[in-house]
Write a structure and sequence with these properties.
Layout lengths: L11 E4 L9 H14 L6 H6 L5 H12 L6 H15 L7 H10 L5 E4 L4 H11 L7 E3 L12 H10 L6 E5 L2 H9 L3 E4 L11
Parallel strand pairs: 1-2, 1-4, 2-3, 4-5
Length: 201
């Protein structure tokens, strides 16, 4: 497996949380399936993976619209999913290959977190994985008008670090987050080749 290398011109690091620093994607998917099956439909795994990084409420609205389930309240079901996730979040573990990069550069380069999760979920994930004290800057979907795949999350992180976007390196595991980093004029490392989360349907 290749080692993650930080280019010499990079002055700031921005990390996604779910599926990047924390192995939470299988937990998120389990919570999705529990809630969707309760309401009589499936959450396709391919759809889940394609929408990784997009806020839960947006994803559920998109899925329910595509399935034509007009009788369902997407926001209420998304709230249910988040509540189920919170009961399971204690099982989350850090993704060491990425966390080790953060540990190596802590105190050397400014670092921020940029997630599509809401603040409550993000803080619970950081607590479960022992990463709370490592990062001072946390941007969630509660902090921007346009979350991923828009670049706002990462641009706000860069601004709070005081680093120009072109000198920021983003770590991501989802296509929307990668698109957001590129749209923001930042460099990006897709962590998926370094770590494979096993997600069961």
């Amino acid at each position: 497996m290749n080692k993650i290398v930080i280019p010499g011109h990079i002055k700031g690091l921005i990390f996604d949380i779910d599926g990047t620093l924390a192995n939470t994607m299988p937990i998120h998917y389990k919570a999705c399936q529990i809630v969707c099956r309760k309401h009589g439909f499936e959450f396709p795994l391919a759809y889940f993976l394609a929408k990784a990084g997009i806020p839960t409420h947006t994803t559920f609205k998109m899925l329910i619209d595509e399935l034509g389930l007009k009788e369902l309240d997407a926001n209420a079901i998304a709230d249910e999913k988040e509540a189920v996730f919170l009961t399971l979040v204690h099982t989350a573990t850090p993704i060491d290959v990425v966390v080790n990069v953060a540990k190596k550069y802590q105190g050397i380069l400014p670092m921020a977190l940029g997630t599509g999760a809401n603040r409550e979920l993000a803080e619970n994930i950081l607590k479960a994985t022992g990463l709370t004290e490592m990062f001072e800057i946390l941007i969630t979907c509660d902090d921007v008008v346009n979350p991923k795949p828009a670049p706002d999350t990462f641009l706000k992180g860069a601004a709070l670090m005081g680093i120009a976007p072109e000198f920021c390196l983003v770590f991501e595991d989802g296509a929307p987050g990668i698109a957001a980093a590129i749209a923001g004029g930042m460099e990006v490392i897709d962590v998926r080749p370094y770590f494979a989360a096993e997600i069961k349907e």
